[in-house]
Amino acid sequence: MVTYKRNMDDVFKALADANRRKLLDALAIEDGQTLQQLQLALPDITRFGVMKHLKLLEAANLVSTRKIGRFKYHYLNPVPIAEISNRWIDKFTKHTATGMNRLKNQLETVTSKDKK
Asked: Does some domain include residue 25?
């Protein structure tokens, strides 16, 4: 049986919400944004709502912060997403590629027999 790190569950939970994905997209475009800047990515959500989303992203280790003076800057941490990609996406992509190669070979075999 496969055991999962608690952090991976937190990452999936964080990525499950479209608003949090928008915040990550905004940080991917321009890293080191303040809360005020990130609010522009979610114009329909209150400041408090954006803060709650950022707190959850921080708990999942997807966002790190740095306070300089009065401002708190938010930075994207892509490592947890890369870990998910390595653990889940790459593994299943290999199976798909293998299946596609088998299908291609079978079709080529059938096609070459038809030509004879």
From this structure: yes
- pTM score, two decimals? 0.73
* Helix H or strand E encompassing 64: strand 63-68
Strands 71-76 and 63-68: antiparallel
* One domain for residues 42 and 67: yes
**What pLDDT, in 10s, does the model give residues 104-115?**
777 777 666 666
Q: Are residues 55 and 88 in the same domain?
A: no
Structure tokens at 56: 């959850």
Could you give the number of structural domains in the chain?
2
pLDDT in tens, 79-102: 999 888 887 776 777 666 676 677
Reference 66, options 80, 56, 76; nearest CA is 76
70 in the same domain as 13: yes
Shared-domain flag, residues 96 and 64:
no
- Calculate ∠ Cα 5-32-21, nearest 5°: 50
